[in-house]
Design goal:
10% of the residues lie in helices and 60% in strands. It is mainly beta. The protein has an 8-stranded antiparallel barrel with strand order 1-2-3-4-5-6-8-9. A hairpin with a 2-residue loop joins strand 3 (59-70) and strand 4. The longest helix is centred in the N-terminal third of the chain and has 14 residues, at 2-15. The protein is globular, with a radius of gyration of 15 Å.
């Protein structure tokens, strides 16, 4: 896992460029597929949909709906999140998930936006998240539409 994290950080630094797309009022729709690996037990597969809006040029606040499953068991979660973009591609974020059963859980993460092909408003978004209570690390890739 440490090797994957190092490769991710190197790629993020190498490709961080200013896109000029992120400004107050810009909206984002994000669809993500992630593999979650708890400290004990089997890996989980998660599908997530997010909607957010930039309230300043570098702060994105939004809502998340996710579905996770493993070995016949599944759960749907609702969440709130906030991301801080320290340039127009790399960000750190935090949020809270509210599952349909059980206690809420905080998460932190980071990622980057990379232009997807020649599109001006679709970005590839690789990222890592850490869920604090369950101690799960999630590595995922999503497509983000900015409008």
């Amino acid at each position: 896992m440490k090797k994957v994290l190092n490769i991710f950080i190197i790629c993020a630094i190498a490709s961080s460029v200013a896109f000029g797309q992120l400004s107050k009022g810009t909206k984002a729709i994000d669809g993500e597929f992630a593999i979650l690996k708890p400290s004990e037990g089997d890996a989980l597969t998660m599908l997530s949909l997010q909607y957010g809006q930039f309230f300043t040029d570098d702060i994105l606040v939004g809502l998340q709906l996710s579905y996770a499953g493993s070995d016949g068991e599944s759960a749907t979660d609702f969440g709130l999140f906030g991301d801080y973009f320290f340039n127009d591609s790399m960000y750190v974020g935090a949020g809270m998930l509210f599952p349909e059963v059980g206690d809420s859980e905080a998460f932190v993460g980071f990622g980057m936006l990379s232009p997807f092909r020649e599109s001006k408003n679709v970005y590839l978004n690789p990222g890592l998240q850490y869920y604090t209570d369950s101690e799960i690390i999630a590595a995922g890739v999503s497509l983000v539409l900015l409008f």
